[in-house]
Structure formats: structure tokens, C-alpha cells
Design brief:
The protein is α/β, with parallel strands linked by helices. The chain has 2 domains: about 15-90, Helix Hairpins (Orthogonal Bundle); about 100-175, Transcription elongation factor, GreA/GreB, C-terminal domain (Chitinase A, domain 3, Roll), CATH 3.10.50.30. It is built from 4 helices and 7 strands, in the order βααββββαββα. The chain has a 5-stranded mixed beta sheet with strand order 5-4-3-7-6. A two-stranded parallel sheet has the order 1-2. A hairpin with a 2-residue loop joins β6 (about 155-160) and β7. α1 (about 25-55) packs antiparallel against α2 (about 60-85). The chain starts with 19 loop residues before the first strand and ends in a 6-residue tail after the last helix.
Length: about 200
């Protein structure tokens, strides 16, 4: 076999290398999902797989094959979350800042800016695991996040977009609590289907 076919797949690698900056509520969300997968979802799927295996021929048993595939997906997500939690560097946006760092946009800042047409928008700069465009949470490594980094009120920044350039004026930089949507049990989870009681 050629060497090109022997490489280990890199599917569960984190999206960004190096530091995993995250807010306290973002880290809690990752921990909640990790705990749910380990203590509730994986045991429920394992129970279904064991039941399906006891039914006989595994080669034509859809419950068994689907359950094994679902276990691999869960294990991959658990590995990913474990790496992200271990690499997490928690930055509290509400922590007191002194000097220039209180006036300039860094990780955890909430920034109000205007585009050339005068349209205003408010965004919060968060970690890659916390991005939620419906709440205007943008990643610190996104093009907009990078453009706003280290800017202060009254300054102009350049946003490089594919095929165009946009000029933005920073109107306000402040640091306040950023609420990240809490982890919710997915409606199609195996735990929901089997009706197992929550484990504490």
C-alpha cells in the first residue's frame, strides 16, 4: 500500500492551533456537552448496541450498525471536546482592565462600529467555540474580529473581504458580560428516545 493511504485521519483536530481563548460561559457550555455525552448519550447508545447485538446476525442488523456508527461519532466528539477543554485559556470579559487595554478591543470586547454607509452594528469578540451570529458573537480569528482587534473608539479599520475592502469606524469599545447560549440536549438524542432519567 502506498504511503498516501496510511495517514491517520485528522477529523477531530481543533479548528485553530495554539491558544483556545474562551469566555467562562463558553467553557461551561463545552463542559456541559462533554458531561452529557459521557454520562448520558454514550451509555444509552451502548445499551441499544448491546440489545441489537443480542438479536443475532450483526451483518444485517441495522440497529447494531447504526449504533456502532453513532458510538464512533460520539467518541470523536468527546475527543474533540476534551482537547478543546484542555487547551482552553479562559478570559473573563468582566475582569478589570487597566490603561490602554480598557480602551482597545481585545478578546471579550463588545464593539459598536459603523460602515461607510452609516449602518451601525454591535458585535462581541469571542472564541471559535462560541460563535453565534444570531447573538452577534464573532470569532477573534474571523476577518471582522481581526480587523477590530486593538482598535479604539474613533479609529478607522479596514475589513478585507473576498473581492472587496470595507472601511469601518469604531464608535465604542466596552467590556461586559457575554452570555453564551447554554448547552441543550439535542431533541434526536438516544437519551430522549429511550426516556432514560437524567443522571447527576
Amino acid at each position: 500500500m502506498r504511503k498516501g493511504f496510511t495517514r491517520k485521519p485528522q477529523g477531530d483536530e481543533p479548528g485553530t492551533r495554539g491558544k483556545n481563548y474562551i469566555t467562562p460561559s463558553g467553557l461551561q457550555r463545552l463542559k456541559d456537552e462533554h458531561r452529557f455525552l459521557l454520562t448520558r448519550e454514550r451509555p444509552a447508545v451502548t445499551e441499544v448496541v448491546a440489545w441489537a447485538a443480542s438479536n443475532g446476525d450483526r451483518s444485517e442488523n441495522a440497529d447494531y450498525q447504526y449504533g456502532k456508527r453513532r458510538l464512533r461519532q460520539i467518541d470523536g466528539r468527546i475527543r474533540f471536546l476534551t482537547k478543546r477543554i484542555e487547551a482552553a485559556e479562559v478570559v473573563d470579559p468582566e475582569a478589570p482592565r487597566a490603561g490602554q487595554s480598557a480602551k482597545r478591543a481585545f478578546f471579550g470586547a463588545t464593539v459598536r462600529y459603523a460602515n461607510a454607509a452609516g449602518g451601525e452594528r454591535v458585535v462581541s469578540i469571542v472564541g471559535t467555540d462560541e460563535v453565534d451570529l444570531s447573538r452577534n458573537h464573532i470569532s477573534w480569528v474571523s476577518p471582522l474580529g481581526r480587523a477590530l482587534m486593538k482598535s479604539a473608539a474613533g479609529e478607522s479599520v479596514v475589513l478585507q473581504k473576498p473581492g472587496s475592502t470595507e472601511y469601518l469606524t469604531v464608535l465604542e469599545v466596552l467590556y461586559k458580560g457575554i452570555s453564551v447560549a447554554p448547552f441543550r440536549e439535542p431533541p434526536g438524542s438516544e437519551v430522549a428516545a429511550t426516556g432514560l432519567p437524567p443522571r447527576r
